[in-house]
Amino acid sequence: MDIGSKIVATSAIKIALTTSRQEEADLKKEFLNQYNVKAVAVDYGGEFINSVGKIVERSVVAAKREGVIKDSHADEGAVAGAAREAISQIMPKALGLNVGGKIGVARHADHVSVAIFLGIGLLHLDEVAIGLGHRAVS
Hints:
This protein is of the alpha+beta class. It has a single domain, classed as Hut operon regulatory protein HutP (Hut operon positive regulatory protein HutP, 3-Layer(aba) Sandwich). It has helices at 5-16, 21-35, 48-65, 73-94, and strands at 38-47, 98-108, 111-121, 127-136. The protein has a four-stranded antiparallel β-sheet with strand order 1-2-3-4, with helices on both faces. 41% of the residues are buried.
């Protein structure tokens, strides 16, 4: 079976949408067994503008810690670039507001995807958004 960017992107989105650590662990095993896709999720929150750097950093650190990417400049740059792309997609809704959510990172071969799922708080009127970035790295 040809595993491409679609499966990797789907895996990143699905793991970012999990609601518990157990659900994350189950999905990680499923992705690895079914598609040989490595994935990780990490929570984050805070005021959006101040969180941008932390989101990118947490994406890279979590991916390295869980073995989703290698400890190389190219892999770290791919995750950071995909995270920045995902952030740029949600920025118009989140600018100036508090956010909280989860980052999902998935990889297979030369495909890396980062999905960011967040709740955007404005008083008691919450909004949600998903951003997705993809990079190819060899």
